[in-house]
Write a structure and sequence with these properties.
binds FE2/S2 (inorganic) cluster; 112 residues; 2 helices; 17% strand; alpha+beta; four-stranded mixed sheet
């Protein structure tokens, strides 16, 4: 299998309700994941671009979080309406969506 052009890992981690950190699952992460899968499939892009569920990405208060490889671009606060924009602007046009990025100056450094 060739490497995907872009591979997005979307946190779907769930913690018990009321947990102080919250979790992406409680912010509708599963719907964001399903929307990525559906959009990529509908556009015939599934062999080049991939969406995969991930566990906790360790920035729980900013979820729904995701990270795109190979660049290592992180996104925060994702909702279903952001999916088409990320596919069209980042995946296809090569321009990460700046206002949705979690780390812009220190890519990959976690809040803890
Ligand atoms: S629960 Fe999603 S980043 Fe921690």
């Amino acid at each position: 299998m060739d490497q995907y052009k872009k591979h997005i890992f979307i946190c779907v981690n769930e913690r018990p309700k009321g947990h102080e950190k919250g979790s992406c699952a409680h912010r509708n992460a599963e719907a964001v994941f399903r929307k990525f899968r559906a959009e990529l499939s509908a556009r015939g892009l599934g062999n080049e671009y991939k969406a995969t569920k991930s566990g906790c990405l360790a920035s729980c208060s900013t979820g729904v979080n995701a990270v795109v490889y190979p660049e290592g671009i992180w996104y925060k606060g994702l909702v279903e309406d952001d999916v088409v924009r990320i596919i069209e602007e980042h995946f296809l046009a090569g321009r990460p969506v700046q206002e949705l990025r979690l780390f812009q100056e220190q890519e990959g450094k976690l809040e803890g």
